[in-house]
């Protein structure tokens, strides 16, 4: 029996109890209690008849890192991280975007060496970029690049390398991140990636 059905059954029993009290007991005090019980039980039955809408946290997709065989596998995990757990797409666009608050990452994997990409993610304040995309004096970007390896995003090294592999791949570069190196990073055995919740699928 489902939880709701069980609660409905309890509600019905409570209402039934109230009805029995009203039918068979003459003492005024108990009749009042019976009435209150019927009203409360009735309310809970109405509440329980409203369809339940569960709002669940996003489904967690896990990747078994030992199943990653090719740099392309790595890049496709990196792509998922980029758009979900890594939150990169909140700030960055790939290609021009009107609402971009941060550098456009189009072609970034070809422009920057993997070591520099790694530094951009883990030491974002080491080298600050200015926004030249407007007239006048270049300004700092309105947003700040977060430390990707620290809270709240806190990607593991394996996840960061996957994202770098993705940045290289989407820039049309050969992926220079080696799968063996990533496997050697950390012995967690598996990577956890919070996937984006798809509407309609709890
Ligand atoms: C809160 C907004 C924000 C988020 C989230 C964010 N970034 Fe950034 N990022 C920035 C800003 C602002 C800059 C430019 C300023 C600077 O260099 O510090 C930047 C710079 C960069 C650069 C250097 C760009 C260049 O031209 O050299 C890279 C690479 C980068 N981000 C990648 C990422 C990746 C990958 C993620 C996700 C794992 C990410 N960012 C998440 C705001 C963000």
From TrEMBL:
Gene3D superfamilies: Cytochrome c-like domain (1.10.760.10). It holds the Pfam family Cytochrom_C. Residues 73-171 form the Cytochrome c domain. It comes from the Bacteria. InterPro entries: Cyt_c-like_dom, Cyt_c-like_dom_sf. PROSITE patterns: CYTC. The chain crosses the membrane at residues 6-25, 32-50. Keywords: Heme, Iron, Membrane, Metal-binding, Transmembrane, Transmembrane helix. This is Cytochrome c. It comes from Candidatus Nitronereus thalassa.
């Amino acid at each position: 029996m489902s939880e709701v059905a069980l609660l409905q059954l309890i509600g019905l029993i409570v209402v039934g109890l109230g009805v029995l009290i009203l039918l068979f007991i003459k003492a005024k005090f108990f009749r009042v209690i019976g009435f209150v019980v019927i009203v409360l039980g009735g309310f809970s039955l109405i509440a329980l008849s409203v369809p339940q809408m569960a709002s669940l946290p996003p489904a967690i997709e896990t990747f078994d890192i030992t199943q990653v065989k090719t740099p392309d596998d790595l890049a496709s995990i990196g792509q998922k991280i980029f758009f979900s757990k890594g939150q990169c797409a909140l700030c960055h666009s790939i290609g021009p975007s009107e609402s971009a608050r941060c550098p456009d990452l189009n072609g970034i994997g070809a422009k920057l060496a993997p070591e520099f990409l790694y530094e951009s993610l883990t030491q974002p304040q080491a080298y600050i970029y200015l926004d030249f995309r407007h007239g006048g004096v270049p300004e700092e970007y309105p947003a700040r690049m977060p430390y990707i390896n620290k809270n709240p995003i806190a990607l593991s090294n394996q996840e960061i390398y996957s994202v770098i592999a993705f940045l290289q791949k989407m820039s049309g570069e050969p992926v220079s991140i080696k799968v063996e190196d990533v496997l050697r990073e950390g012995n967690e055995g598996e990577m956890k990636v919070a996937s984006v919740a798809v509407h309609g699928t709890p």
